[in-house]
Structure formats: C-alpha cells, structure tokens
C-alpha cells in the first residue's frame, strides 16, 4: 500500500511510501483519497500529519504516466478533497517537494519543513505548467511576483527562504515527525486554513511584462513559461474554481505538445545514460586525490571543478611560471563562483591554501587516485606524458586523457597498464559545462569506466559513454555538420544568415559565432591535422583559413566572422568581399539559400552522422547522442536532441532530403545504412532506445 492511515493519540498519520521519490502515480492518488476518507471518518482524530517515507517528500506527478491516457482520481481532485476536509492536515516536508508534491503540500492546511528541505514547481522544465493548483495556490500564499519567479525559474527554494516567503509555516527544530505532530496538536479543534480561501493578489502589469520579456530572452522558443504567466495573471480576477479550470485546460494543451514530449525525453535520457550493463554493480575506485597535468584552458577548469567538489588537487605544469599562471586562473574561477553565490569566501580560501598544490614535478602525482591529462593536443606530447605517468602513478590509479580527437588506444599503449587508461572529455569551461564524455578504449577496465561515471556524479556532471574514434560522439558529429554549413557558405550563404537560421531553430549559438568564441586557430589546427587524410572531393572552408591567416581569430583578436567592440557584435564588413574572392578562385557561382534549406541541410548532416555513431557503437544508444548534443553543443532542449527531433520530424523525410542533396554532391551526402534500414522497417531511433532497455 503506497498510502496508509493510522492514528497516534488524537492525531491521524497519513504516510506516503512510493519509492524512489514518492511520485503521485495512480495508486498514490487513490490511496490519498482513501486516507482522507479514513481520517474524516475517524472521530478520535482531531488533526492529521501527512508525511513521506524514504528520502523525500513527494517529488511530483509520476512522469512515466505522461502521454498515456489519464486515470482517475486526478491529482487536482485529490488535493481539493484534502483541502476540503473540516479538520486540519499538516504537511511534514523533507527532501524535495516538487511539482505535484508541492501542490499537495499547498492543499494541506499547514506546512512544516525539515531544515534541509527544498520546494519548487519545476513543471516548465518538462514543457508543462503546474497542473494541480500550483498556479492558483502559490500566488495566494507568497504573492504574485515571487510566485511567477518561482514557477518560471523552476528553482528549488530552500526551507528557510520558504519560511520567509510564507510558503511554509514552520521549520522543524528537532525530529520532523515529532514537530509536525506538535503543530497538528496545536491546530486541533481549529477550523482548517484553506489556501483557496486566501485572497488572490493584485495584478502588477509592469513587473509581469518585464518578467515575461526576461523569460523570452533567456529561453527562446519555450512555451511552458509564457503559458504559465498567462494562466496566473489571467486568473487573478476570477474565482478560485474558474482559475483551476483555466489551469487544467492549459495543462492538458501543453501535455499534448511536442515540447512536452521532447523535454521529458531529455529528462529520462539524462537518467538513462548511466545505465550501462558493463558497469552494473561494478564498484568505482577512490576519487579523493586528483592529479591534473596542464593548467591551460581545460586543466585549470578541470582543477576548479574538482576543488568545487571538495577534492584534493595537484596540478603539474611545464615550468614555474606556467604553474603560477594556472594557480591564478583557478583563483579567478573560484572567485567567479563566490560572486555567483556558489561558494563561500572561506571555502575559496581553504580550497586554494589546503586543497590545491601546483608544481612542475611529476613525483607530486604519486599519491593521486585519478590523473587527468590536459596538455596540448599532440599525440607525441601525450605519449611522453603517459610514459612518465606510468613511472610515477601508484598502482590502481586511473590515468585519463582529456583529448578532443586523438586515439585513446594509442595513448594507452604508451603505458604498461592500458586497463587503467580512459578518456575523460570535458567541455569548456570545464567547471561550468555539465557534459563529460567517458571514452572507453579497447582495454579499459570496467572499474575504470565506473570510476569515470562516479567522477561525473561527484562533479555534478552528466557522463555519457563514448567509443574511440576521431572526435568521439560530439566532436565527430560536430565536424560533420560543420562541413555541411561550410559547404553552404562556399555555395553562397552568408555565415550570419546561417547563424541566424540555426539560432531561430533554437541553437544557443550559430556555428560561426561559436568559431569566433573558440578561436579560428582551433579549427585551422584541426584542418591541418587532418589535411593528409583529406579526400580530393572534400570541400575545404578556405574562407576560414583566410581569416586565420590574416590573424582574424575571432573574439580574442576582436575580429573573425564578426567584429567585436562596444555593444552587439557586428558582421565582419570585409567578409563578403573575401567570400567573393574565395568563390571566384574556386569557380563557384553563388546561389541563395533560404532558412528552411539551411536548417534541413544542417539537421540532415547531424542526424546522418549521428546514425553512423550509433551504428558503429561509438554511442551506446540514440539517447546518448541526444544527451551529448543537448549538454555540450547548445542543441535546443525543447527539441529533445537531434535523434528525438529526427523521430518527430520523420526519418523518411530526412532520408529523402539526403538523397536529394546527393544529386549535386554524392561524395558528402551518403545516407547512413542505419537510417536507411530504420526507414525501410518503419522504425524510429526511439525503438532502439527501448530495445536497449529491455
Ligand atoms: N516521476 C517518476 N519518476 C521519477 C520522478 C517523477 N516525478 N522523479 C524522479 N523519478 C525517478 C527517476 O527517473 C529515477 O529513476 P531511475 O532510478 O529508474 O533512473 C529515480 O526517480 C531517482 O531520480 P534521480 O536519479 O533524478 O534522483 P536524484 O536524487 O538525483 O533527484 C529529484 C531526485 C530531485 C526528485 C529529481 O528526480 C527530479 O527533479 N525529479 C523530477 C521532479 C519534477 O519534475 N516534478 C514535477 C513533475 S510534473 C508535475 O508534478 C505535474 C503536476 O503539476 C500536476
Ligand atoms: P592550452 O594550450 O590552453 O593548455 C595546455 C597546457 O598544457 C599549457 O598550459 C601547457 O603549458 C601545458 N603543457 C604542455 N605540455 C605539458 C607537459 N608535458 N606537462 C605539463 N604541462 C604541459 O590547451 P587546452 O585548450 O587546455 O587543451 C588541452 C587539452 O584539452 C587538449 O588535448 C585539447 O584538445 C583538449 N580539450 C580542449 C577543449 C577546449 O575547448 N579548449 C575542450 C575539450 C578538450
């Protein structure tokens, strides 16, 4: 029984026990109805406490039920039944009260929180809005603007702040159950205080308009947030029940939207990536003492991430000056964390003085549990580093490389312990970006793989397993669709038009703005590295090489595809002439591209290479590709990732696009066999995800 009712003296106790997170699935909703009835009928009970077993209060509606036919009783009705009781019910909250969980608590007549409890309405992150009275009860409890801020930010409000806001009535000082029982006893005999009977706050049109604009800027393309603002503000002047009906109608409409399906796919995909048979039940190795080699962009960021996670870090550089620079960079990043309120000043000081050692002697790595190499992207340098590591690292230490493209098997060969070697591919800035590709080489020990996943968890990152190949999952797919957009520029599209079309599609940034940010030298180096393997029919972005050769490296030189100065970056005014010259040299006649074709070509290229990545096992499943592209490459979350998007768009349409594009370039546009097979069989990428789970 997921919900039970018993009595303790004059107080009824309703307990919800539905692991893992006490979600309000159908059995919980039905159980709550029965418990409310039992409490109402129990004349000896003068008040009740509602409490949850396990690690948390109710963390929301059961997301696994979404998209299936709804089953009675519905959560809003359950909450109304509880709120309508004529004896008070106290919600005793620990862990996280989220979504339908917080809505349930707001339908109770008083709320007490454990000091560590957090509460919020995260429905918008799933493409929904609070659908069990949250849009009506939260503004009545805490006021209009705090409620709208909470709903649109989806943030988890700590218990102490919730008390200040009036969201809860008390903080537990001792045992939560005992304190909740005491609160219930103090309310016994009183009329229950129903949130629905509180007056709705007045409208604040200017503040609401400002919030609406800020949300649209922060989350372009998303519909849940704006709809939630509409429902809350449109219902301020109407009776509670009418407001509930407006909320229900909007909730059901969002439930049917492709955004809801995409965002929930992203939610479950991010939880499924760690579910790999090869490491099931495998214990990770220790992770307390971390070594980092190289203190440049990545090494300093990785060291900062580890310090923020409370680990001991030893960073090795080439000389004292570089080691001192690395320490300064790390101090600057920690200072940023202090400014953003993520780190206390004392914690920064102790991280720098007690937990960070910088130096030049590899012997300092002798005690490290895991060592991450982040030196230059050169096989020769990496081989030297790993040979040295093999001499100094303790037995069982994990030896990791942060290489972006290089062969991890070859790097492992530089040691006498290839089982301990793995790729841990962080993304820049490494202390901010959530993605970590765990690159598993041929001989990597499963324990070492499990340690890579454990490190991600410790750093609050999302780890995705990748196989060895040039660029692993993300950079390999990126290289491929970069080639497609570069080809469009050669054929006549303007880089700014491509950036705008893809930003309109939902990408955080267009590819040319990204190039400017990363530095045009990075792309030029990669092209130089791959030049020897180039096919004569590969199309080289000569225009990017020209910018590089003339020293226009992007943001760092103030000039690249855009010009950077005061205000918004402007398109580089010299670029059109440069492009004309390049096209003329290559004998190309430019043609116009519309936005639709730009998106179609980019997405077809991305999905086609992603299909190859899945087929050859570089990614375990299509969902792994989605998680990589969502968390490392700015793919719009509300489209669910390229594979989810492809399923929704239609694999047959993508395949026919590829065949059409091949009519003019059959070297680049070759359909991936997996894509052809799925279309022939009438299946989708989602079917492969499902098969992998069964
Ligand atoms: N429904 C169903 N399953 C859920 C769930 C939910 N609401 N929330 C979490 N789970 C599952 C996860 O899928 C995971 O399952 P797995 O172990 O099989 O992979 C398990 O519970 C544990 O979840 P996490 O790995 O995420 O555990 P954490 O401890 O890291 O986080 C959490 C716990 C903070 C509760 C986090 O899971 C979370 O944020 N959950 C979603 C909360 C949410 O969005 N609630 C709103 C739902 S919409 C709603 O309520 C509509 C209403 O307004 C009508
Ligand atoms: P960087 O040039 O900023 O830093 C490299 C650092 O390594 C320099 O400070 C250098 O002094 C040091 N170094 C070189 N040889 C060394 C040695 N033998 N011992 C100790 N230190 C040594 O380079 P960046 O950008 O940090 O890249 C490092 C690695 O991370 C590369 O393999 C790169 O491909 C990879 N990477 C880079 C990303 C990025 O966005 N910059 C993203 C993900 C991976």
Report on this structure:
- The longest helix has 21 residues, at 595-615.
- The protein has 29 helices and 19 strands.
- The chain has 694 residues and is an alpha/beta fold.
- An eight-stranded mixed sheet has the order 12-11-10-13-14-15-16-17, sandwiched between helices. A six-stranded mixed sheet has the order 1-2-3-4-6-9, with helices on both faces.
- Helix 5 (144-153) runs parallel beside helix 8 (205-218), helix 19 (495-505) crosses helix 24 (595-615) and helix 24 (595-615) crosses helix 27.
- The chain folds into three domains: 3-256, 2-enoyl-CoA Hydratase, Chain A, domain 1 (Alpha-Beta Complex), CATH 3.90.226.10; 287-466, NAD(P)-binding Rossmann-like Domain (Rossmann fold, 3-Layer(aba) Sandwich), CATH 3.40.50.720; 474-693, N-(1-d-carboxylethyl)-l-norvaline Dehydrogenase, domain 2 (Orthogonal Bundle), CATH 1.10.1040.50.
- The mean pLDDT is 97.
- It is globular and about 90 Å long.
- The structure holds 3-hydroxybutanoyl-coenzyme A and 1,4-dihydronicotinamide adenine dinucleotide (NAI).
Topology of this protein?
Layout: E1 3-8, E2 11-16, H1 26-41, E3 47-52, H2 75-83, E4 89-93, E5 96-98, H3 100-107, E6 110-113, E7 118-120, H4 134-142, H5 144-153, E8 157-158, H6 159-165, E9 170-171, H7 176-187, H8 205-218, H9 224-234, H10 240-255, H11 258-272, E10 289-293, H12 297-308, E11 312-316, H13 320-339, H14 345-355, E12 356-359, E13 370-373, H15 379-392, E14 398-401, H16 408-413, E15 421-426, E16 435-440, H17 446-458, E17 462-467, H18 474-491, H19 495-505, H20 511-518, H21 520-530, H22 542-549, E18 562-563, E19 570-571, H23 575-585, H24 595-615, H25 622-632, H26 642-649, H27 651-662, H28 673-681, H29 685-693
Parallel strand pairs: 2-3, 3-4, 4-6, 5-7, 6-9, 10-11, 10-13, 11-12, 13-14, 14-15, 16-17
Antiparallel strand pairs: 1-2, 7-8, 15-16, 18-19
Helix pairs in contact: 1-2, 2-3, 3-4, 4-5, 5-8, 5-9, 8-9, 9-10, 11-25, 12-13, 18-24, 19-24, 20-21, 21-22, 24-27
This protein binds 3-hydroxybutanoyl-coenzyme A and 1,4-dihydronicotinamide adenine dinucleotide.
Residues 20-21, 23, 59-64, 75, 96, 98-100, 103, 122-123, 126, 128, 130-132, 134, 271 line the site of 3-hydroxybutanoyl-coenzyme A.
């Amino acid at each position: 029984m997921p919900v039970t009712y018993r009595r303790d003296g004059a107080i009824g106790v309703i307990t919800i026990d539905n692991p893992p997170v006490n979600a309000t699935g159908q059995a919980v909703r039905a159980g709550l109805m029965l418990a409310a009835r039992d409490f109402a009928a129990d004349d000896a009970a003068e008040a009740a406490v509602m409490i949850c077993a396990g690690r948390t209060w109710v963390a929301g509606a059961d997301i696994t039920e979404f998209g299936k036919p709804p089953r009675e009783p519905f959560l809003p009705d359950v909450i109304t039944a509880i709120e309508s009781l004529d004896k008070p019910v106290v919600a005793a909250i620990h862990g996280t009260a989220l979504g339908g969980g917080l809505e349930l608590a707001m339908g109770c007549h008083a709320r007490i929180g454990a000091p560590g409890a957090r509460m919020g309405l995260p429905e918008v992150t799933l493409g929904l809005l609070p659908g069990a009275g949250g849009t009506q009860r939260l503004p009545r409890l805490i006021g209009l603007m705090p409620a709208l801020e909470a709903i649109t930010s989806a943030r988890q409000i700590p218990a102490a702040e919730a008390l200040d806001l009036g969201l809860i009535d008390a903080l537990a000082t001792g045992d939560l159950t005992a304190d909740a029982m005491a609160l219930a006893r103090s309310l016994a005999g009183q009329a229950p205080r129903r949130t629905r009977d509180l007056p709705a706050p007045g409208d604040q049109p200017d503040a609401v308009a400002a919030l609406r604009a800020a949300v649209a800027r922060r989350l372009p393309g998303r519909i849940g947030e704006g709809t939630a603002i509409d429902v809350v503000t449109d219902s301020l002047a109407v009776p509670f029940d009418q407001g509930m009906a407006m909320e229900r109608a909007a909730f059901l409409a969002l439930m049917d939207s492709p955004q809801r399906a995409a965002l929930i796919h992203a939610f479950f995909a991010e939880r499924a990536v760690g579910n790999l048979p090869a490491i099931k039940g495998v214990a990770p190795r220790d992770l307390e003492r971390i070594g980092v080699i190289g203190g440049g962009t990545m090494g300093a960021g990785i060291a900062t991430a580890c310090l923020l996670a409370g680990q001991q870090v030893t960073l090795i550089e080439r000389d004292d000056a570089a080691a001192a620079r690395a320490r300064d960079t790390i101090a600057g990043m920690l200072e940023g964390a202090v400014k953003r309120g993520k780190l206390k000043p004392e914690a920064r000081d102790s991280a720098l003085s007690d937990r960070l050692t910088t130096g030049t002697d590899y012997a300092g790595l002798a005690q490290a549990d895991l060592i991450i190499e982040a030196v230059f992207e050169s096989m020769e340098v990496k081989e030297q580093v790993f040979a040295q590591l093999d001499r100094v690292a303790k037995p069982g230490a994990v030896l990791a490389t942060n290489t972006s493209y290089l062969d991890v098997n070859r790097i492992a060969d530089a040691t006498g312990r290839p089982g301990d070697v793995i790729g841990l591919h962080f993304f820049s800035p490494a202390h901010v970006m959530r993605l970590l590709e765990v690159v598993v080489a041929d001989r990597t020990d499963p324990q070492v793989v499990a340690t890579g996943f454990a490190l991600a968890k410790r750093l609050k990152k999302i780890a995705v397993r990748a196989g060895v190949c040039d660029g692993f999952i993300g950079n390999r797919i990126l290289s491929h669709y970069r080639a497609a957009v570069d080809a469009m520029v050669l054929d006549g599209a303007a880089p700014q038009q491509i950036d705008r079309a893809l930003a309109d599609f939902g990408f955080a940034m267009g590819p040319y703005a990204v190039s400017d940010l990363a530095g045009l030298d990075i792309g030029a180096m990669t092209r130089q590295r791959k030049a020897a393997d180039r096919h004569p029919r590969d199309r080289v972005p000569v225009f990017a090489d020209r910018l590089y050769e003339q020293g226009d490296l992007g943001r760092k030189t103030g000039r690249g595809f855009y010009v950077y100065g005061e205000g918004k970056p402007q398109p580089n005014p010299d670029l059109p002439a440069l492009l004309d010259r390049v096209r003329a040299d290559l004998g190309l006649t430019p043609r116009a591209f519309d936005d639709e074709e730009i998106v179609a070509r980019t997405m077809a290229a991305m999905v086609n290479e992603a299909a190859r990545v899945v087929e050859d096992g570089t990614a375990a499943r299509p969902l792994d590709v989605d998680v990589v592209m969502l968390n490392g490459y700015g793919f719009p979350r509300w489209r669910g990732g390229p594979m989810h998007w492809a399923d929704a768009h239609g694999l047959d349409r993508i395949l026919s696009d590829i065949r059409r594009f091949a009519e003019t370039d059959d070297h680049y546009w070759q359909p991936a066999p997996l894509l052809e097979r799925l279309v022939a069989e009438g299946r989708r990428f989602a079917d492969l995800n499902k098969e992998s789970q069964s």
